[in-house]
Amino acid sequence: MRTVTTAAELRAVLDAERSAGRTVGFVPTMGYLHDGHASLIRAAAAADDVVVTSIFVNPLQFAPSEDLAAYPRDLDGDRRVAEAAGGALVFAPTEDEMYPGGRGAVLTTVAVPALAGVMEGESRPTHFAGVCTVVAKLFHLVGPCRAWFGEKDYQQLAILRRMAIDLSFPVDVVGAPTVREPDGLALSSRNVYLTAEEREVAPVLQRALQAGAAAIAGGETDADVVRRTMAAVVDAAPLGALDYVEVADADTLEPLEVARPDARLFGAVRFGRARLIDNIAASGTGAGAAGPSSTGSDGGSAT
Ligand code: PAF
Predict the structure, then answer these.
(1) Chain centroid to CA 268
(2) Known catalytic residue at 37
(3) What pLDDT sits at residue 279?
(4) Rounded to an integer, what distance in angstroms lies between the CA atom of residue 5 and that of residue 27?
(5) Cα gap 236→238, rounded to integer Å
(6) Among 32, 114, 128, 185, which residue's Cβ finds the most Cβ atoms within 10 Å?
(7) How far apart are CA 169 and CA 26, in angstroms?
(8) Choosing from 34, 37, 127, 140, which is the catalytic residue?
């Protein structure tokens, strides 16, 4: 497993691979890799010849009040996970390498406001511009590739897919199903913040989404009734404070008045230090049954 820390090295290694006819898969991460990341790396390795995993805790996507300093980090462990999953290369830049002069010197940002104002964007108004800016930079550094993102962060996936299309990146953005614990809790680096008691209750978010899907399957078409059904499941459990539940269009992310089986159900719940998010397809298949979904568009092909 090779680890590079500079943009110049990364470009040189990947240009050489492409010149030799090998295709590149890319898994952008903030490290502290778990089985969800490993499944993305495995999928990338099955689809392309060389897989690069970036590990960079991006300060631009954290608000001043958020957990940047405390965000869990374990580069040696990450290298082992990436290698075991079939990754060939880790890109682990410093903040100064990504943002010369530091994050305060960045004057250019990339944003997709039409998709970023709802749900996560309401409580984290600067978050997605930070994500888009770093991913745009990473796409430029990695070059033509197929890039993998988990559906656990569905809003992020929808935004990055749009960004790749709108800005003509030669990148095929691919979404992969959420990986879950046996009790339904979606894997997340932030799960380490849960106390034992909170961990026991945390699957309530997934159960709330399933209750929403069951209501729609049972014929409920009033999206507000579905929202209330989901909220009631969270409210009935101890320890969790509901942030939001939503019934939204799966592409535009617009909140719906009429619930449909092709909608997407979203939720966010705070448990102590951990703020957990999750989503499923309203047809009930989003808990992991849906296969990888790609831009399949003029966003470019993985070459
Ligand atoms: O999903 C993440 O881990 C991050 O938001 C990403 C895409 C790596 C950008 O920092």
Answers:
(1) 14
(2) yes
(3) 98
(4) 16
(5) 7
(6) 128
(7) 13
(8) 37
Query: Residue 131 C-alpha to ligand 1 middle, in angstroms?
Result: 6
Q: Is the pTM of this model over 0.90?
A: yes
Which structural domains are found in the chain, ordered by start? 2-177+290-296 (3.40.50.620), 189-281 (3.30.1300.10)
The tokens for 218 are 């049972």
Q: What is the pLDDT, as a whole number, of residue 291? A: 37
Which helix (H) or strand (E) covers residue 23, if one does?
none
| Contact (Cβ atoms closer than 8 angstroms) between residue 86 and residue 41 | yes
For the segment 29-53, what is each residue's pLDDT rounded down to a tens digit?
999 999 999 999 999 999 999 999 9
Q: What phi, psi does 44 have (nearest 5°)? A: -65, -40
173 lines ligand 1 (CB under 6 A): no
SS3 of residue 194 by DSSP: coil
Is residue 192 within a helix (H) or strand (E), and if so which, with residue range?
none
Contact (Cβ atoms closer than 8 angstroms) between residue 132 and residue 158: no
CA 111 to chain centre: 16
Q: Which residues of the chain have pLDDT under 50?
A: 286-292, 296-303
Partners of 277 in beta bridges: 268
The conformation of residue 152, written as its DSSP 8-state character, comes to G
> How far is Cα 158 from Cα 149, in angstroms, rounded to an integer?
10
Q: What is the pLDDT of residue 285?
A: 61
Residue 293 bridge partners (DSSP): 175
